[in-house]
Amino acid sequence: MGIDFISAEFDVVRDDARCTRCRVCEKQCANGVHAYDEKNRRMTADETKCVNCQRCVAFCPTRAIKIVRNPNTFRDNANWTASVVNEIYKQASKPGVLLSSMGAPKNLPVYFDRILINASQVTNPPIDPLREPMETRVFLGKKPEKIRRRPDGRLDCALEPQLELALPILFSGMSYGSVSYNVHKALATAARETGTLYNTGEGGLHKDFYAYGANTIVQVASGRFGVHKDYLEAGAAIEIKMGQGAKPGIGGHLTGAKVSGDVSATRMIPEGSDAISPAPHHDIYSIEDLRQLVYSLKEATAYKKPVIVKVAAVHNIAAIASGIARSGADIIAIDGYRGGTGAAPTRIRDNVGIPIELALAAVDQRLRDEGIRNNVSLIVSGSIRTAADVVKAVALGADACAIGTAALLAMGCRLCRSCHTGKCNWGIATQDPALVARLNPDIAARRLINLLTAWNREIKELMGGMGINSIEALRGNRLMLRGVGLNEKELEILGIAHAGE
Amino acid sequence: MKIDASLYTHRALNDLLRSRTDETSVENCLGLRFIGSGLSHGTVLIDGVPGNALGAYLDGAKIIVNGNAQDAVGDTMNKGEIIIRGNVGDAAGYAMRGGEIYVEKNAGYRVGIHMKAYKNNRPALIIGGRAGSFLGEYQAGGFIIVLGLNDDGMPIVGNFPCTGMHGGKMFLRSDCRDVFFPEQVTARPAGAEDMAEIKPYLEKFCDAFHYNPSFIENAPFTVVTPDTQNPYKQMYVAN
What we know:
The complex is a heterodimer.
Chain A: E1 10-14, H1 24-28, E2 34-37, E3 42-45, H2 55-59, E4 65-69, H3 82-93, E5 97-100, E6 115-117, E7 138-140, E8 163-165, E9 169-171, H4 181-194, E10 198-199, E11 216-220, H5 229-234, E12 237-241, E13 252-254, H6 261-267, E14 275-277, H7 287-300, E15 307-312, H8 317-325, E16 331-335, E17 344-345, H9 346-351, H10 356-369, E18 377-381, H11 387-396, E19 400-403, H12 405-410, H13 433-436, H14 441-466, H15 471-474, E20 481-483, H16 488-494, E21 497-498
Parallel strand pairs in A: 9-19, 10-11, 11-12, 12-15, 15-16, 16-18, 18-19, 20-21
Antiparallel strand pairs in A: 1-4, 2-3, 5-17, 6-20, 7-8, 13-14
Helix pairs in contact in A: 4-14, 8-10, 11-14
Chain B: E1 2-4, H1 10-19, E2 23-30, E3 43-49, E4 59-66, E5 79-84, E6 100-103, E7 124-127, E8 140-146, E9 167-172, E10 185-189, H2 192-209, H3 213-217, E11 222-226, E12 236-238
Parallel strand pairs in B: 1-2, 2-3, 3-4, 4-5, 5-6, 6-7, 7-8, 8-9
Antiparallel strand pairs in B: 9-11, 10-11
């Protein structure tokens, strides 16, 4: 109240005629919005606690609830928007760094939405994927520069280790700790079923999930949580995390409150201790240092696994990627400005980094110009929302896309952007056992499998329309793309022509 | 078995070391990197100077170096023992979670960063001489012990030790009157209980490098501990 008061962002609208006082909304809300007024025999709501996660709406048996934007407003101001003003109020009452979750919601250009895909007409006929074979299988890893023959003249078929994906989509790194056990179980199950990989993030690998190792990317980040010999050997690939799109240039920080029980055991740190991943790897200050970490990991795993280096998309990403491609890494993962997170300082999330579309195009072009594109495969992420985004990314030069937010949405996430509170009503970004139990890992896995299956069908359909029957023939095929409403510089960086050209 | 390191690539040498169960003597070592990466068994004796990332992810093997070692010794080490009869370079013991590293002489910058402990895994890094700047940054567990036996007149530790420390203990064999520690740690003279905790490591150090234990112990030790496991707790406002 008073000077500290911040008006609720949402209103809880309850149709009293429909409400049966069953109190499901009250039970479902971990934020304590709904309550039952015994005396007046009616439901009440404290909308200041509402994060608009839609849980009560989805579970109300009589569809009596709607969450709407609170019509209460400040005086209109296009510059001093309500969110800016409220953030100042928050920081005026407590001197802290503003903390947010999920990808940047700001209204910056989404280049994927300004790129259109080609289709064949008359000549070079389209292909019907229902009738003809279409290949979306991809192999990630170093490709040989030329055909080599052994002394006896036969082909030398020895390759650097490759990851085989049944479709050009994998799951982004999301640590156990930031997301729940059931989320990891669902991701692991879905990855195995669909022939792709999920990624541990920097939280170690729970002992129950070693069995899914062939479909697991294990991450090594600056805090080295849960990293030991068995962990490195368990995965199909090892990812060195240098940065992530949601918070380039800063580290990770799982508060001690979330480091309990299994999370502590999996990260191999004491319960209640903060899990701090420093901003830099303090042993990596150069490409040469990075090369050292790449090779120490290769040595530790006898060169059997590809090593991925994950970086955030930042201004000099092309030069950075060029360095990484020379570091011995097999795969570069680039995470764009809109990448999701379980917690990031608001200012960093919303103001640092560059969109993945521009980063990808710049990197692919630079690696081609330098003749080192085949040294590495490229995985891109940072808001891949649809099969069309995947197709556009591949045509811009990606070998595969990683999805995090889209996968969470498939599992029930409503994008309320409150992961950092640890009270996720959908059982995703929480360690509260009662909330975790809300996510049925079998159902979540089924929904992930459905999503990937659907996207794979759409990818094939889009490819077929272009007259392309193999994803290999789409990769870097920028002739298949046209821009709309983009200026010359944007088109130049994206390496595409404008629609009509 | 004796091996001439100059005849091997690091990949071939590590393949060989993985296949061996008993003691292997590696001679003529001139900067070969990654020796013993992830090694879980056996003993490796190295004559010469091993290159960077010696014993990274070490998982139970013992490595003894007759000479200096370079950067990133024992990176993310989990179990085992590394003994260096000389100096080590920068970033030794980065994020190590278990095992012990004994260095006879001095250590470079950024040593023991993010060292951590978990249950029975309590790593220890013992440096006979002095350590460079940024010692034990983000230390989250285990013991970092610096004995200051160097005779070059340089201080026992460089600038900014213990920044971001949130677990474990650091012992410096000095009254530390000239050492500047950050706000979130407490530095105090080590008591009998503290000394009892590190006695086994001091004894092993003396045994490895032929020092008299009473000479080592009969000097003022300062012990540094963090004030909180959660140094960043107050920094955020939910938005």
